[in-house]
Amino acid sequence: MGIRLEHVNYIYSPDNAFRKQALKDISLEIPDGQFIGLIGHTGSGKSTFIQHLNGLIKATDGKIYYNEQNIYDENFRMTELRSHVGLVFQYPEHQLFEMTVLKDVCYGPKNLGLEDEAAEERAKEALAMVGMSEKDYDKSPFELSGGQKRRVAIAGVLAMKPEVLILDEPTAGLDPKGRNDILDQIAQLHRKMGITVVLVSHSMEDVAKYVERIIVMNRGEIFMDGTPKQVFERYDALESVGLAAPQVTYLMHRLHEIFPEMPTEATTVDEAKTAILHCLEAEK
Question: Fewer CB within 10 Å, N or C, the chain?
């Protein structure tokens, strides 16, 4: 069933001179099991949007449904929503606070009411899912590298067995290998567990490679919503709001100008390679 937003608006500081409308009439559905990329320039409303999905921010007006239940109904349990819709912030330091890695990941399950043994079992399972070694369990989270901190933060959310995993720039500041490791792990979790994933990213290459649907935000509104091919084919529209398509998209359009038979819809390096090789074979 998933998450559904109906005419959601959000205004910061509505009653003073700093009033700003961060979300404007947002209506969309996030079906179960979808892998979504959320993109937009800084200040477009992405972070405000994702914090509405698990109730951290309440809409100024509009409705949000989780599995067809209005999360703003008086009897709706917001704590239950947050156990099903997990949010990993951009900076993992904001979510890590216990003395050891294992204790940190145990915190969520214990908060759900699990006994120590059951919570620890879930924590170890979640840490294994994100590729953390047992030798790191007794380390302080703050001794870890940036990539490891992000893995632990993700594990802390996974230990609560969410149905929706929201990640706000999970690879910010990581080197290329660290970025690929994290995103490959998330993609594997999506395939294995069938959970819904919402990935906020500034990297068009990452979004093109991993997601099946892209939501583009601009000035608090939904500017585009479609498959990577549909969105990146309109690279000129993206540029008009301060964004861009993956570099391979520009390459394929340039090649198409030289070789009219060259298709332009490739959005990843692998797709471009296949298209170029196919054209070369056809020329023989």
Answer: C
